[in-house]
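Quick question about two entries, pasted in order.
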Amino acid sequence: MPNGYPPTPAGAAKSGICCSGRDCNSGKGGIGCVLKVESLTVTISAHGVTIVQPLSFEIGRGEMVALVGESGSGKSITCRALMGLLPANIKSSGHIAITGGQGDRRVGKVAMVFQDPVGTLNPVRTIGFHLREILGLHSKLPAAELRAKAVEALHSVRIRDPEATLSLYPHQLSGGMNQRVGIALALAADPLLLLADEPTSSLDTTTQAETMDLIGELREKNGLAVLFVTHDLGLVNQRADRVIVMYGGQLVESGPAQKIFTAPTHPYTAALLRSIPKLPSNGVPLEGIPGQVPAPGDGPFCCRFSNRCPKADDKCFSVTAPEVLLEGGQLVRCHYPISSQVSRGGAHVATAS
């Protein structure tokens, strides 16, 4: 492993394809990459326990990439590493580049929307105070102009009465309204990249749809790149351009969303998709994945999924599988990737080779 970087995926060297399985020469619309991550590793420094193993991927301008996997897979800690918000006892290494390309003058390069909208706001400060504080960090405008910018920020996230909302406190707003405020705060400095860590998990179905519609409109309008962390695979199927699947701190598969949902290549991805409730169920019980995600520092260490995978053998427990780039832009880390799809009752059922 030269220079501490993971091996280049097979077939990637001549095609200009990066470790995320996408064309690194052009982003959505041919504008180029906004985020480039190379061998990001997150470790608990005192114990030397690795939380996220070397992780490499890219996101293009205007692109929405979903980061999925069970709780404990390393999704949220990856976002915090990208933001530089790791606790003092947790260290990250690797290379992270956030760029808007030549000539881009945006000041706030990256922003984050957190899972709990109320918990991220100061309960004794007004909404206006929060917005003016953020805006004041990136400009030296007089108070009147800061207020006007704050009103504009709330208006951009479709809050009906932005002027009145400035004087309200977080507890006076609904969860959906606080989430809109959180998005307004994140976008106040006109970032290039938005990290959205399960921004809809605490919202009802209607408000979830409104929130995702809002993020979609803003990325179309501003060329905003979005890394979207979620457990809702239905939402991913509807909204994401590409999907990155993590398990136990490892990237196990990535690729275009349509490919991931119709032809998963890693047994873990296939198991996740089989666990999605289907309507009508016709009395068929929900299919889960036996076992649980290993805690950081616990085995297995080569393929983290091997102790839950019915196809695993001694090789899976003793040899780390390389990342292999497949036709169609899918990237998989598995000794025995899925090679065929069998249709059963209209649902795609993955069959491992």
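Here is the second entry:
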Amino acid sequence: MEKVYHPYHLVDPSPWPYVMGCAALLTTLGAVIYFHYSQLLMLILGLLSVGLCMFFWLRDVVREGTYQGYHTKATVHGLKLGFLLFIISEVLFFVSFFWAFFHSSLSPSIEIGVLWPPIGIDPLNPFSVPLLNTAILLSSGATVTWAHHSIVSGNKDEAIKGLTLTVILGLIFTALQAFEYIEAPFCIADSVYGSTFFVATGFHGFHVIVGTIFLFICLIRLSRSHFTRSHHFGFEAASWYWHFVDVVWLFLYVCIYWWGC
């Protein structure tokens, strides 16, 4: 039988999609048990399973793209389209949160006093920690762009500096948001305001954590010379994701922190 050559990467059979599905199910069950019975064991086991699966799955992808040469131009094109569709799905995910927020805030119901913010809610000052976090996240968008241009220019040292600053700024943002949550004068159970506020900003905070881990992995790969001037889609995907996080935060800040107060 004649062997057919093509530019696409036909992935070898892998256990990781099935294992990740089981780990996600374990995490969900653990979260439900924690919410109802305050028992953390299954949730911790689920999160550890997800983390280990991510590590080994990403290890295989890095091996295929960096050492085995499977990520041809056609394959990278497909990866880019797939990642763009993923970001579009994330945009729609956040649209649902904004929809819930504006549905409740533009026409407040009688149950919350026909007023927004509802009676009894003391909103956060948008010009304190939220404004500082806005400056930090926008600065991180500039540093990740600096790192990207440095990679394209072949300047590894500058790219490492820019990416290191981005990771540090992401950690500072997360720490400040945690401080903000601790000091907030309301909680997620305080009417629809608390629900929409903590769900929208909390999921954004989760995306910041994921993006920081993504960029940190890229930093390790960059230090090991995995990226070249023309072949660095792993970093491109991380930078796209980070810019998406930046844009979502601007909408959150303007709508929920500033206008919503």
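Reply: The helical segments are 16-37, 41-67, 73-105, 129-153, 156-183, 191-223, 233-259. The first helix runs from residue 16 to 37. Hope that helps.
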